[in-house]
Structure formats: structure tokens, C-alpha cells
């Protein structure tokens, strides 16, 4: 395992990190202020040679190795835009349907538990009545026993 050159913590395989092309030091994406999406692009591109701030200094580089478009920015062809629009609509429809299903399931579950609570309350009332009757019978038996002696 390697340690981050910025925070000196381990850079695990599941956490995105990037290796400096000059001195081969590893750095967490968070420590370099590079998003996970940007890290994925940098890591998947062979021709990009990334250098850490220590190696480049504080000055901005004169030449940018790669340009990563914003997630909202659409730079594709019209068929790609149509595809993206269609995919967004499908995902939106799926989310809406899932919300509706979850709401229905929650309502059904709440109704079930509400009915169970009502049943339990009725049973508790029956038990309380039976307990009072039993208490009264015990009192009557005690009274009868006292008068018999």
C-alpha cells in the first residue's frame, strides 16, 4: 500500500488516487482537489502525464495536459444529445415509478401496522375487563369466606 504525499494516509484501492509523473508520489483525489470523475479520466488516459503541486510549483502550468468537460456541458453530436436526453427521461421515469412504488408500499405497511395496533388495543381492553371481573370475583370469594366463618 502507498501513502498520500499530502496527508500521509494510505491510498486504498477503493479510494481514488493519482500518481505524480515526475517523482511517482501518490496523492488522494481529495487532497489534490480533483474530482473522482476527473481522476477516472486521468487514470484511463495513457498520454496524460500528471504532476503534483510540489513538482509544478504554485504557478499554474502554461500548457494544460487535458481538458475535462463539465458534467452538464453537452459537446456531442445531435444523436448523442438525443440519446442523453432519452436516457435522462428514462432515468427520471424510473425514479418517479420507484418513488410511487415505495410510497404505496409504505402506506400498505403503515395500514397493516395500524390495524395490528387497533387489534392489540382491543385485546388489551378485553384483558382489562377480564382482570376487573377476576378481581371482583376474588373480592366476592373473600367476602363470602369471611361471612361463613
Automatic annotation (TrEMBL):
<feature type="coiled-coil region">
    <location>
        <begin position="103"/>
        <end position="144"/>
    </location>
</feature>
<dbReference type="InterPro" id="IPR011011">
    <property type="entry name" value="Znf_FYVE_PHD"/>
</dbReference>
<protein>
    <recommendedName>
        <fullName>PHD-type domain-containing protein</fullName>
    </recommendedName>
</protein>
<keyword id="KW-0175">Coiled coil</keyword>
<dbReference type="InterPro" id="IPR013083">
    <property type="entry name" value="Znf_RING/FYVE/PHD"/>
</dbReference>
